[in-house]
Design goal:
The protein is an alpha/beta fold. It has one domain: Vaccinia Virus protein VP39 (Rossmann fold, 3-Layer(aba) Sandwich), CATH 3.40.50.150. Helix content is about 50%, strand content about 20%. The structure holds S-adenosylmethionine.
Length: about 230
C-alpha cells in the first residue's frame, strides 16, 4: 500500500493544492486554518505535523507559533516535501522523510501532533490505523495533544448522500484531469466515501489510549476536527 500511495503522491505535488482548493471550494483552507488554531492554542515547544505533504498545515502552525517553538513536518514522499521546503516558511520548518507509523523520534518528545487530510491514507486496515495512532501517542509527551483534521460522514442522510454523489462525480474526473493521475484521484474519492463517522473515529482514538477526545464538525459534518490528549 505504501508504494502505491508513494507513487500517487510522487505524480501530483504541483497540482495537489489547486485541485483541493477547486474541488472543496476553498473549504480545505478554512478547515486547515481552524484546525491549526485549535492545535496551537495550548502552546508547547515541539510540534510535529505528520503526513505533511506540501506543508500547508505546517505553514499555518508556523504563523501561530511563539518564538522558540520547533516545528517538524514528516512525510514519506520526497516530491511533496520538496515542494513544501521551497515555500517562504520552508527554512523555519524541520522536514523529515518518514513513514508515519515508524517515526524517528523518542518517546514523550512532542507537545503537539497534527495530521490533516491524511488519516484516510494511514487507514489501509482498521489495525493499520490503530498502529499509526499508537505511534503518535508514543512520541507525544504526557498531556500532549493530537489534532486530526479529516473528511467525515455528515449525520444527515440527505447531506451524506449528496456529498458522496458529489465526490463520486467530481473528485476522480476533475482531479484526474488536472493532475494527470486518474488512479490517484479514484483512490482518494473511494476513501472519502468509506471513511469513519466522527463518533467512530473518536472511539478509535479512545481505543488507542488517548483521553479527553472531542470533535468539532465543520460544513454540515463533511469534515471533522478531533482533539485528543495523551
Ligand atoms: C492527502 S495528502 C495530505 C497533505 C497535507 N497534510 C494536507 O493537509 O494537504 C497525504 C500526504 O500523506 C503522505 N502519506 C500518506 N501515507 C503516509 C504514511 N504512511 N507515512 C508518511 N506519509 C504518508 C503522502 O505522501 C501525502 O503527502
Amino acid at each position: 500500500m505504501n508504494k502505491v500511495l508513494q507513487n500517487i503522491y510522487a505524480r501530483i505535488p504541483r497540482t495537489y493544492e489547486p485541485v483541493n482548493h477547486i474541488l472543496t471550494f476553498g473549504m480545505d483552507i478554512i478547515t486547515r486554518k481552524k484546525a491549526a488554531q485549535i492545535a496551537a492554542a495550548d502552546g508547547g515547544e515541539r510540534w510535529l505535523d505528520v503526513c505533511s505533504g506540501t506543508g500547508e498545515m505546517a505553514g499555518y502552525l508556523k504563523k501561530l507559533s511563539r518564538d522558540g517553538t520547533k516545528i517538524y513536518a514528516a512525510d514519506f514522499s520526497l516530491p511533496m516535501l520538496t515542494l513544501a521546503r521551497a515555500k517562504p516558511f520552508g527554512n523555519a520548518i524541520n522536514f523529515v522523510i518518514s513513514e508515519a507509523g515508524n517515526l524517528p523520534f523518542e518517546d514523550d518528545s512532542f507537545d503537539l501532533i497534527t495530521i490533516s487530510y491524511a488519516t484516510r491514507n494511514i487507514n489501509s486496515t482498521p489495525e493499520g490505523l490503530l498502529s499509526h495512532f499508537r505511534e503518535f501517542h508514543r512520541v507525544l509527551k504526557p498531556n500532549g495533544r493530537f489534532v486530526n483534521l479529516e473528511t467525515s460522514q455528515p449525520k444527515s442522510g440527505v447531506i451524506r448522500r449528496l456529498m458522496h454523489l458529489f465526490v463520486k462525480l467530481t473528485v476522480a474526473p476533475t482531479g484526474g484531469l488536472i493532475s494527470g493521475s486518474s488512479a490517484g484521484y479514484r483512490y482518494l474519492s473511494g476513501s472519502i466515501r468509506s471513511f469513519y463517522s466522527a463518533e467512530e473515529l473518536a472511539d478509535i482514538l479512545y481505543k488507542t489510549g488517548f483521553s479527553e477526545v472531542s470533535f468539532d464538525r465543520r460544513f454540515f459534518g463533511v469534515t471533522a476536527i478531533h482533539k485528543a490528549v495523551k
